[in-house]
Amino acid sequence: MDNLPPNKSKLKRLVDALLSILDPRNYLHAFRLIHFYGYSHVQPKRKIESGPGTLLSPNVSLRNGSNIKIGKDCHIGERVCLWAGDSHGKIIIGNNVSIAPGSFITASDYQFRKGIKFREQPKKDMDVILGDDIWIGTGVTITAGVEIGTGCIVAAGAVVTRSLPQNSIAGGVPARVIKERV
After folding, report:
1. How sure is the predictor about 57, in pLDDT bands with cuts at 50, 70 and 90?
2. Which residue of 33, 116, 151, 175 has the fewest C-beta atoms within 10 A of its own C-beta?
3. How many domains does the chain have?
4. Is 145 domain-assigned?
5. SS3 for 143?
6. Tens digits of per-residue pLDDT, 25-42?
7. How far apart (Å, rounded) are the C-alpha atoms in residues 38 and 61?
8. Cα 142 → chain centroid
9. 15, 16, 89, 135 from 22: Cα distances, Å
10. Domain of 156, in residue numbers
Protein backbone atom coordinates (compact mmCIF):
# COMPACT_ATOMS: atom_id res chain seq x y z
CA MET A 1 0.00 0.00 0.00
CA ASP A 2 2.97 2.29 0.59
CA ASN A 3 3.89 1.96 -3.11
CA LEU A 4 0.47 3.17 -4.27
CA PRO A 5 0.03 6.79 -5.33
CA PRO A 6 -1.57 8.91 -2.53
CA ASN A 7 -5.00 9.02 -4.22
CA LYS A 8 -5.07 5.23 -4.74
CA SER A 9 -4.03 4.71 -1.12
CA LYS A 10 -6.95 6.81 0.12
CA LEU A 11 -9.32 5.11 -2.31
CA LYS A 12 -8.19 1.65 -1.18
CA ARG A 13 -8.68 2.59 2.49
CA LEU A 14 -12.18 3.89 1.70
CA VAL A 15 -13.10 0.70 -0.19
CA ASP A 16 -11.71 -1.46 2.64
CA ALA A 17 -13.72 0.53 5.19
CA LEU A 18 -16.92 0.15 3.18
CA LEU A 19 -16.37 -3.58 2.72
CA SER A 20 -15.79 -3.90 6.44
CA ILE A 21 -19.03 -2.09 7.24
CA LEU A 22 -21.00 -4.20 4.77
CA ASP A 23 -19.60 -7.55 5.97
CA PRO A 24 -22.58 -9.48 7.43
CA ARG A 25 -20.27 -11.35 9.85
CA ASN A 26 -19.90 -8.11 11.83
CA TYR A 27 -23.65 -7.96 12.44
CA LEU A 28 -23.90 -11.66 13.32
CA HIS A 29 -21.11 -11.17 15.85
CA ALA A 30 -22.95 -8.17 17.31
CA PHE A 31 -26.01 -10.37 17.89
CA ARG A 32 -23.83 -12.95 19.64
CA LEU A 33 -22.47 -10.22 21.92
CA ILE A 34 -25.96 -8.96 22.71
CA HIS A 35 -27.08 -12.51 23.54
CA PHE A 36 -24.05 -13.05 25.80
CA TYR A 37 -24.56 -9.71 27.53
CA GLY A 38 -28.20 -10.61 28.14
CA TYR A 39 -27.56 -13.90 29.91
CA SER A 40 -24.34 -12.83 31.66
CA HIS A 41 -25.30 -9.33 32.79
CA VAL A 42 -28.90 -8.21 32.27
CA GLN A 43 -31.02 -11.24 33.22
CA PRO A 44 -29.14 -12.19 36.43
CA LYS A 45 -28.93 -8.54 37.54
CA ARG A 46 -32.72 -8.43 37.80
CA LYS A 47 -32.58 -11.28 40.31
CA ILE A 48 -29.97 -9.72 42.62
CA GLU A 49 -31.10 -8.29 45.92
CA SER A 50 -29.19 -5.03 46.47
CA GLY A 51 -29.47 -2.11 48.86
CA PRO A 52 -29.87 1.58 48.08
CA GLY A 53 -26.86 3.45 46.75
CA THR A 54 -25.22 0.29 45.40
CA LEU A 55 -23.64 0.61 41.97
CA LEU A 56 -22.65 -2.23 39.66
CA SER A 57 -20.53 -1.49 36.63
CA PRO A 58 -22.47 -2.37 33.46
CA ASN A 59 -19.98 -5.10 32.55
CA VAL A 60 -20.09 -7.05 35.83
CA SER A 61 -20.42 -10.76 34.97
CA LEU A 62 -23.06 -12.55 37.03
CA ARG A 63 -24.13 -16.17 37.50
CA ASN A 64 -27.22 -17.24 39.42
CA GLY A 65 -28.32 -13.76 40.45
CA SER A 66 -30.99 -15.06 42.81
CA ASN A 67 -28.13 -16.34 45.03
CA ILE A 68 -26.44 -12.91 45.26
CA LYS A 69 -27.25 -10.33 47.94
CA ILE A 70 -25.47 -6.96 48.08
CA GLY A 71 -25.90 -4.43 50.89
CA LYS A 72 -26.24 -0.66 50.62
CA ASP A 73 -23.68 1.85 49.31
CA CYS A 74 -21.48 -0.76 47.63
CA HIS A 75 -19.45 -0.29 44.47
CA ILE A 76 -18.77 -3.26 42.21
CA GLY A 77 -16.16 -2.28 39.61
CA GLU A 78 -15.56 -3.06 35.97
CA ARG A 79 -15.16 -6.67 34.82
CA VAL A 80 -15.88 -8.09 38.28
CA CYS A 81 -17.29 -11.64 38.24
CA LEU A 82 -19.83 -12.61 40.90
CA TRP A 83 -20.55 -16.27 40.29
CA ALA A 84 -22.92 -17.76 42.85
CA GLY A 85 -23.42 -21.50 43.09
CA ASP A 86 -25.80 -23.39 40.85
CA SER A 87 -27.82 -24.73 43.76
CA HIS A 88 -27.20 -23.25 47.19
CA GLY A 89 -23.84 -21.41 47.21
CA LYS A 90 -24.65 -17.75 47.91
CA ILE A 91 -22.58 -14.58 47.65
CA ILE A 92 -23.54 -12.21 50.46
CA ILE A 93 -21.90 -8.77 50.46
CA GLY A 94 -22.36 -6.38 53.38
CA ASN A 95 -22.70 -2.58 53.36
CA ASN A 96 -20.09 -0.08 52.13
CA VAL A 97 -18.04 -2.67 50.26
CA SER A 98 -15.87 -1.73 47.27
CA ILE A 99 -14.70 -4.39 44.84
CA ALA A 100 -12.09 -3.11 42.39
CA PRO A 101 -12.02 -4.02 38.67
CA GLY A 102 -11.15 -7.50 37.50
CA SER A 103 -11.92 -9.32 40.75
CA PHE A 104 -13.49 -12.79 40.75
CA ILE A 105 -15.74 -14.18 43.49
CA THR A 106 -17.17 -17.68 43.19
CA ALA A 107 -19.39 -19.68 45.54
CA SER A 108 -18.88 -22.88 43.55
CA ASP A 109 -15.68 -24.87 43.03
CA TYR A 110 -15.03 -28.05 41.10
CA GLN A 111 -13.83 -31.01 43.10
CA PHE A 112 -10.77 -33.00 42.10
CA ARG A 113 -11.53 -36.70 42.02
CA LYS A 114 -9.06 -38.91 40.21
CA GLY A 115 -10.25 -40.44 36.96
CA ILE A 116 -13.06 -37.94 36.36
CA LYS A 117 -12.67 -35.14 33.81
CA PHE A 118 -12.78 -31.79 35.57
CA ARG A 119 -15.95 -30.59 33.81
CA GLU A 120 -17.68 -33.79 34.90
CA GLN A 121 -16.61 -33.32 38.53
CA PRO A 122 -19.37 -32.52 41.00
CA LYS A 123 -19.29 -28.91 42.13
CA LYS A 124 -18.97 -27.92 45.75
CA ASP A 125 -21.24 -24.93 46.47
CA MET A 126 -20.41 -22.96 49.63
CA ASP A 127 -21.41 -19.45 50.65
CA VAL A 128 -19.02 -16.52 50.31
CA ILE A 129 -19.70 -13.81 52.90
CA LEU A 130 -18.15 -10.34 52.88
CA GLY A 131 -18.80 -8.21 55.97
CA ASP A 132 -19.25 -4.42 56.04
CA ASP A 133 -16.65 -1.76 55.18
CA ILE A 134 -14.42 -4.00 53.04
CA TRP A 135 -12.12 -3.02 50.21
CA ILE A 136 -11.25 -5.73 47.70
CA GLY A 137 -8.32 -4.66 45.47
CA THR A 138 -7.94 -5.09 41.73
CA GLY A 139 -7.75 -8.64 40.41
CA VAL A 140 -8.54 -10.43 43.68
CA THR A 141 -9.90 -13.99 43.54
CA ILE A 142 -12.13 -15.21 46.39
CA THR A 143 -13.05 -18.91 46.41
CA ALA A 144 -16.09 -20.79 47.71
CA GLY A 145 -16.57 -21.02 51.47
CA VAL A 146 -14.58 -17.90 52.36
CA GLU A 147 -15.78 -15.35 54.90
CA ILE A 148 -14.07 -11.96 54.98
CA GLY A 149 -14.60 -10.11 58.24
CA THR A 150 -15.85 -6.54 58.62
CA GLY A 151 -13.24 -3.86 58.01
CA CYS A 152 -10.86 -5.99 55.92
CA ILE A 153 -8.68 -4.80 53.07
CA VAL A 154 -7.51 -7.36 50.51
CA ALA A 155 -4.49 -6.32 48.42
CA ALA A 156 -4.55 -6.36 44.62
CA GLY A 157 -3.92 -9.74 43.03
CA ALA A 158 -4.52 -11.77 46.19
CA VAL A 159 -6.12 -15.21 46.05
CA VAL A 160 -8.30 -15.71 49.13
CA THR A 161 -8.80 -19.41 49.86
CA ARG A 162 -9.40 -19.15 53.64
CA SER A 163 -11.50 -16.84 55.79
CA LEU A 164 -9.99 -13.57 57.03
CA PRO A 165 -10.60 -12.07 60.50
CA GLN A 166 -12.14 -8.62 61.04
CA ASN A 167 -10.00 -5.53 60.41
CA SER A 168 -7.17 -7.47 58.81
CA ILE A 169 -5.12 -6.43 55.81
CA ALA A 170 -4.33 -9.45 53.65
CA GLY A 171 -2.43 -10.12 50.46
CA GLY A 172 -0.53 -12.74 48.52
CA VAL A 173 -1.16 -16.08 46.86
CA PRO A 174 -2.64 -17.66 48.84
CA ALA A 175 -3.73 -14.62 50.84
CA ARG A 176 -2.51 -14.30 54.38
CA VAL A 177 -2.94 -11.61 57.01
CA ILE A 178 -0.15 -9.04 56.70
CA LYS A 179 -1.22 -6.74 59.52
CA GLU A 180 -4.22 -5.42 61.36
CA ARG A 181 -6.15 -2.36 60.22
CA VAL A 182 -5.74 0.35 62.88
Report:
1. very high
2. 33
3. 1
4. yes
5. coil
6. 888 877 777 777 666 666
7. 10
8. 10
9. 11, 10, 46, 46
10. 48-180
